[in-house]
Design brief:
Layout (H helix, E strand, L loop, with lengths): L1 E5 L3 H4 L3 H15 L3 E3 L9 E4 L4 H12 L3 E5 L4 H4 L6 H16 L4 E4 L2 H9 L6 E3 L6 H4 L3 H10 L8 E5 L8 H9 L5 E5 L9 H8 L6 E5 L4 H9 L2 E4 L8 H8 L4 E4 L15 E3 L2 H12 L7 H9 L3 H16 L5 H8 L1
Parallel strand pairs: 1-2, 1-3, 3-4, 4-5, 5-6, 7-8, 7-10, 8-9, 10-11, 11-12
Helix pairs in contact: 2-15, 8-11, 12-14
């Protein structure tokens, strides 16, 4: 069994959660002893496992179907998580949904990160088999490390006693960036750091203003940072606060859990079944609740849930995901050739 893993536009979205998903897939397949290639011109593969949604992705899927290959589409994106992101995203969202449904409909099998996103796909009318498989997490990379934590504190000139709240995400309204800044303004004694970036011209003007100047002095936007600094931030901060309104999973949540960090999330449907308030994380519904929870958490006035959170991450480790992908691949190879899908693709 050989898999062609395909990811279009690595230079554009490689720093996003989807970009990290490809890295995780490569390691997961290697851990499960599954041969794979990244060469889109290859012909000696059995299954095309495709992660992206551009024209090159469409043409590769079409080519694979013509060759009689099985196709798995990894549904990382939905109409719901496209909204409130880039300039014009809300106006384009219905067209994006139509395009996604057309692409996903070409596949013999779909994979999506959570039961929540699986439900969304079913509501789109997609009827292929769908497996809910986490994007996974590299546990070793995020294990707490004193050297990395010290490097993080030194880089941002933070004293040992300075309380720090972090978030990791693109500069999207749906990620809760406005709430993050509004809450920070009420807590000038704490430092709030938002890691991540997108091209500034691609986001609405009000979000650009927030990032560039309309934020209090205790909020930092250092941009995209990887390696020891971000890993040290995950475990070395006092709290990971992720106020996102919509996700298909949220790889950054897994990264925070693997770092044995306290996690505060917005109470949204995507977390049902794997994140539970006051069990492996804390959840809030609005800024007032978030403000109260942040004060309690950074001052250790609530039970520490990091061990339970780490156990959640362990269940989604790279090796576990490798075995789940292997099971899907084996099932797909047993599927009969779908002439109906082929006819749709080749019209």
């Amino acid at each position: 069994m050989k898999i062609l893993l395909y990811f279009e536009g690595q230079n554009v979205i490689g720093r996003s959660g989807i970009g990290r998903a490809l890295s995780h897939q490569k390691r997961a397949l290697a851990s499960a002893g599954i041969e794979y290639t990244l060469d889109p011109n290859a012909t000696d593969y059995d299954i095309l496992h495709i992660n992206t949604y551009g024209l090159k992705s469409y043409h590769l899927a079409r080519k694979a179907k013509k060759m009689g290959k099985k196709v798995i589409y990894h549904a990382h994106s939905t109409e719901e998580d496209f909204r409130n992101s880039f300039v014009g995203s809300n106006q384009l969202a219905p067209l994006v949904k139509k395009w996604l449904v057309g692409l996903y409909g070409m596949a013999d099998h779909l994979i999506t990160p959570t039961p929540y996103s699986k439900k969304l796909l079913r509501n789109y009318g997609l009827r292929q088999p769908i497996a809910a498989i986490s994007n996974g997490i590299d546990l070793k990379r995020y294990y707490p490390d004193e050297y990395k934590e010290a490097a993080f504190r030194k880089h941002f000139h933070l004293s040992e006693t300075q309380k720090v709240v972090i978030c990791v995400g693109l500069f999207f309204e749906r990620k809760g960036i406005k709430d993050f800044v509004e809450i920070a303004q009420k807590m000038p004694e704490y430092t709030f750091i938002w890691f991540g970036a997108v091209p500034m011209l691609s986001i609405p003007a009000n979000i650009r203003r927030i990032v560039k100047k309309d934020h209090p002095a205790n909020v930092l936007f250092p941009g995209y940072i990887n390696g020891d600094l971000i890993e040290g931030a995950y475990s070395g901060a006092d709290l990971f606060f992720f106020p996102s309104y919509e996700e298909t999973e949220g790889i950054v949540v897994l990264e925070a859990l693997a770092s044995q960090q306290q996690v505060l999330l917005r109470n949204i449907p995507v977390y049902q079944g794997w994140m539970q308030d006051q069990q492996n994380c804390y959840m809030g519904n609005n800024n007032q609740e978030f403000e109260e929870l942040i004060r309690q958490l950074v001052n250790h006035r609530l039970p520490n849930l990091t061990l339970a959170g780490f156990k959640t991450a362990q269940a989604k480790s790279i090796t576990e995901i490798g075995q789940e992908l292997k099971t899907v691949y084996q099932a797909v190879l047993q599927l009969p050739y779908n002439h109906q899908i082929y006819s749709k693709v080749t019209k």
